[in-house]
Amino acid sequence: MRKVLLMTLALCVMMAGVAFADEAATTAPAAKIGVVDMQAVATQSDPAKAAKKQMESKYGKEREALEKQGETLKKKAEALKDPKASEEKKLEFIRLKQELDQKTRNFLRKVEQEEIKLRQDMVTLVFNATYEVAQRKGFNFVVDITAGGVLYADKSMDLTQDVLLEVNKLYKNKSK
Question: How many Å apart are CA 108 and CA 32, to the nearest integer?
Answer without folding.
Answer: 43
